[in-house]
Automatic annotation (TrEMBL), chains A, B:
Belongs to the AB hydrolase superfamily. MetX family. This is Homoserine O-acetyltransferase. It is an enzyme of class 2 (transferase). Keywords: Acyltransferase, Amino-acid biosynthesis, Cytoplasm, Methionine biosynthesis, Transferase. One of its GO terms (cellular component) is cytoplasm. Its EC number is 2.3.1.31. The keyword Cytoplasm applies. Residues 49-358 form the AB hydrolase-1 domain. NCBIfam families: homoserO_Ac_trn, PRK00175.1. It is found in: Cytoplasm. SUPFAM superfamilies: alpha/beta-Hydrolases.
């Protein structure tokens, strides 16, 4: 059975408070939200080397530095670092925690400006476009007018596309990896299972749980369900198959007999140590609401009309969360909009998570694309 | 949020108690278990017209008659009835609730013979082969020595294959629909999410909940997660897409905005009215333990060596729970074992659930196969 652990110990994050209130798609306003971020490298004299990295659902700003809660290395050190495609010696790299998140940016666990108690469900429901609006506010404060590139995998890719639609003249290139321009019914269904698992946990208390007292079991179940969608069936079979924990002995009970069970339980339990349950509700909602074409009468190409950025779209053949067909749809719209768009489908057994892992060809493609953009006038 | 409802009101089921204790794969013994069943049609004079239908994970014996809890028609009236492929005017049709179930056969909600209280987790963990052993005991009591056919979809198909291995001389034909000869890592993973959702619900009480007081919310979440696997992505998109409940108005809250959310919640909530949470644990465990080749040194073909039954294996192209590749593996083993095996992959947008729905070709294939078997000497 899943154990209950602490939900989110307090740590200090590097953050700025936006100078103005943030208007939201819902019609509400977020009063001067905090935006937590990390930067690596330095902005050059003509301010032409800034790259914004957008993180995925459960990611955060610690893209290239040790995570303060888990102690693990940055989540994209394969891609970001000296000699890597996104290189602090060449680039000014910015990664910010999305609003609605729980790593320092304004979110449901942040203190409400009026009473200092957590926002909890008083926090307004936000969208991918709201996240991007907050990032644009951060860039203003950092003195970055135009990005060399906006780069993201999964939900990060959605933000990258939203950037092209919301701020078409503030970017020279867009890199979209393992993503989709809308959430499908199946995507929404999996998220709804996770939300219901959280909300079914009596410790959720309609969102008003105390720090460290949240719905750990519900959140762990939500993570387990989601985690299955990040891996491919073939990858699971290769890694775990039907291997038992104890040689070839079945317990004939409900302990974790199979290695895959033990692995999933571990994924669920370790997640609750670093993530806030309400933040999970808000961010999954933002993802489910995402349909970039919606604001353009259902014409996805129209979302890409105003920008002149170059695009690179990358998918993985074993990704069934945001399958290649979704990337193809994006590329079709891009080309129809007159954009330069490169499309690469990479071979990987690792499913959706391939964008975070060692995937042959991935760093080369990102490297080649960014260097080509840099060499353009 | 999911509401709590009654878990399993008491109803009377037609059942027999086996004349002897039932030995189990675990090494334990089930003292004279009750087996609930329904029969339709009559056994003919030479006892050659009996067909056993095996039900799926959440199915039951009400294959052709109104369900006593839901009031819905029998779950396979498309296939079973006058003029249908399995026809009470020609066949003696038997369908029994699996042991471990909750519709009258001995299961965790049944009274323990010693103290009359529910078995709960004292119930031994059972396997697919144990279910089949109980069915064989029932057939003995009904005077059926040899089956014209054993037929099943999903977990029912696993029982059908197990029949061929356990009682090779008691059947003339085997019909396996939308099934697999083993549970994959991904299959186990989804079940483990469901089990953890149930066990995370404080009302589960380590299985010792009272009648009508079970972990309804946890069970509903388990059902929601499982239900996604029964449908195809394309089917979900066609049926629900991103359609909202209220025209084009988003609530910017956590109510069921999308039709798919509302549908899933309904699936979860209506399930807890007819199913016992502990039974769900036991039956998913039996499925996860299933690997027919395991008892034959990993050689699936050897499981089919002893029988001379004819086989028909049917898969659906959009089924990702037990995909066509698993059926292909079964057929390969059957032919390698020297069996006559027909293999049909049907086109359907409905995913795994296609075996329960109106699927072009399905009744014709079942009808043709059974009639051919009947006409053989």
């Amino acid at each position: 059975m899943l154990g209950a652990r602490l939900v989110s110990p307090k740590v200090a994050h590097h953050s700025l408070r936006l100078p103005a209130d943030l208007p939201l798609d819902s019609g509400q306003t977020l009063p001067r939200p905090a935006v937590a971020f990390e930067t690596v490298g330095e902005l050059n004299a003509d301010k032409s080397n800034a790259i914004l990295i957008c993180h995925a659902l459960t990611g955060d700003q610690y893209v290239a530095s040790q995570h303060p809660l888990t102690g693990k290395p940055g989540w994209w050190q394969r891609m970001v670092g000296p000699g890597k495609p996104i290189d602090p010696e060449r680039h000014f790299i910015i990664c910010s925690n999305v609003i609605g998140g729980c790593m320092g940016s304004e979110g449901p666990a942040s203190p409400h400006p009026e009473d200092g108690k957590p926002w909890a469900l008083r926090f307004p429901v936000i969208t991918i476009a709201d996240m991007v609006r907050a990032q644009a506010g951060l860039l203003d404060m950092l003195g970055v007018e135009k990005l060399l590139a906006v780069v993201g995998g999964s939900m990060g890719g959605m933000q990258a596309m939203q950037w092209a639609a919301s701020y078409p003249h503030r970017l020279r290139s867009v890199l979209v990896i393992a993503s989709a321009a809308r959430h499908s019914a199946q995507n929404i269904a999996f998220h709804e299972v996770g939300r219901q698992a959280i909300m079914a946990d009596p410790k959720w208390k309609n969102g008003a749980y105390g720090a460290g007292e949240g719905p750990a079991k519900g959140l762990a179940v939500a993570r387990m369900a989601a985690h299955i969608t990040y891996l491919s069936e073939a990858g699971l079979t290769a890694k775990f198959g039907r291997h038992l924990q104890q040689g070839d002995v079945k317990s004939f009970g409900f302990d974790a007999d199979f290695q895959i069970e033990s692995y999933l339980r571990h994924q669920g339990m370790s997640f609750v140590d670093r993530f806030d349950a309400n933040a999970y509700l808000y961010i999954t909602r933002a993802l489910d609401y995402f349909d970039l074409a919606e604001g353009y009468s259902g014409q996805l190409a129209h979302a890409f009309k105003a920008t002149s950025a170059r695009f690179c779209v990358i998918s993985f053949d074993s990704d069934w969360l945001y399958p290649t067909a979704e990337s193809r749809r994006i590329v079709q719209a891009l080309v129809a909009a007159g954009r330069h768009a490169s499309f690469v489908e990479l071979n990987s057994p690792f499913g959706h998570d391939a964008f975070l892992l060692e995937t042959p060809g991935l760093t080369e493609v990102v490297d080649g694309f960014l260097k080509a953009v840099e060499q353009e006038p």
